[in-house]
Amino acid sequence: MTETPRTALTIAGSDSGGGAGIQADLRTFFACGVHGMTAVTAVTVQNSLGVHGFTEIPVEVVTAQMRTVASDMGVDAAKTGMLATAEIIRAVAATADEIGLGAGGESAPLVVDPVAASMHGDALLREEALEAIRTELFPRATLVTPNLDEVRLLTGVEVTDADSQRDAADALLELGPRWALVKGGHLDGSPRCVDLLSDGTHRIELDGPRHDTAHTHGGGDTLAAAVTAFLAKGLGVGDAVSAGKAFIERCVAESYPLGGGIGPVSPFWRLAPEGTPGPPAS
Ligand code: PLP
């Protein structure tokens, strides 16, 4: 028997293709050495070519999952991903307060990844739910991690360069999270991937290489999950985000093709020193 590891809870949707959502979060939690727990919010029907549809889980089942794991196993850090509807967002926010997650709960850090759409442009959030993310979830968040499309949807700021990246961080912070991470990975033409982490007082630029790959499915989830795992292990936000960025860089570098569309980023390297296993030798 060994010591109980730290615990992390993901409140998110299922990706039947296994590359994003709770599947990505769980494998990331595992690879980062924390025990992962789930509150499933929606079940998507998807493969590498796109999301064919989704069904949300009844709201009382979502909140019951949160309460049940928190009361027995404890939650050292949590993240939200796909929340699907305004009703689920409101209930998750209220339950986060109740079980001590995020700013309202004042105990375990809460990372909010405001998932709105897939890389293929398929909606993962009902339209009326954006306002609930702004007003219910952001004020409770320790850290928010939108991609550039989500930044535009939530704040109206179009990020095209370092100046607008700073404006975006300020606009996100006005919605109430303690910290905002504005990712630069999707800025076209940039040879580097410079992310900006800000709490309004500190502005930390995180510079890394940009890997040229089509296979980045689940990248946003994996970064947010890795940061959540490092927060669960007790790191501060700056250190957790740096460690999360180092983790996702390697996962993007080792992403693999799967199916006819966009393949997933991969944390296999963390488990096997020789990297992603290929097919068995014949
Ligand atoms: N499916 C689920 C359940 C997700 O949570 C997400 C992203 O968070 C996606 C699909 C889309 O992932 P991507 O945009 O990396 O393809």
Question: What percentage of the residues does DSSP assign to strands (E)?
Answer: 15-25%
Write down the overall geometry. globular
Number of domains: 1
Ligands in the structure?
A: pyridoxal-5'-phosphate
What string gives the helices and strands in order?
A: EHEEHEHHEHEHHEEEHHH
Distance between the termini: 38 Å
Question: What do we call the CATH topology?
Answer: UDP-N-acetylmuramoyl-L-alanine:D-glutamate ligase
Instruction: Give the rounded overall mean pLDDT.
Output: 92
State the CATH architecture.
Answer: 3-Layer(aba) Sandwich
The rounded Rg comes to: 17 Å
* Helicity range: 25-40%
CATH superfamily: Ribokinase
The main β sheet shows up as: 9 strands, mixed
How many distinct beta strands? 9
Q: Class by helix and strand content?
A: alpha/beta
Describe the fold and architecture.
- By secondary structure, the protein is α/β, with parallel strands linked by helices.
- The protein has one domain: 3-Layer(aba) Sandwich (UDP-N-acetylmuramoyl-L-alanine:D-glutamate ligase).
- It has 10 helices and 9 strands.
- The protein has helices at residues 21-31, 59-72, 86-99, 102-105, 130-137, 148-155, 162-174, 219-232, 237-253, 268-271; strands spanning 7-15, 35-47, 50-56, 77-80, 110-112, 143-144, 179-182, 192-198, 203-209.
- The chain has a 9-stranded mixed sheet with strand order 3-2-1-4-5-6-7-8-9, sandwiched between helices.
- The longest helix has 17 residues, at 237-253.
- The model has no long low-confidence stretch (mean pLDDT 92).
- The structure holds pyridoxal-5'-phosphate.
- Residues 12-13, 15, 20-21, 44, 81-82, 115, 118-119, 124, 217-221 line the site of pyridoxal-5'-phosphate (PLP).
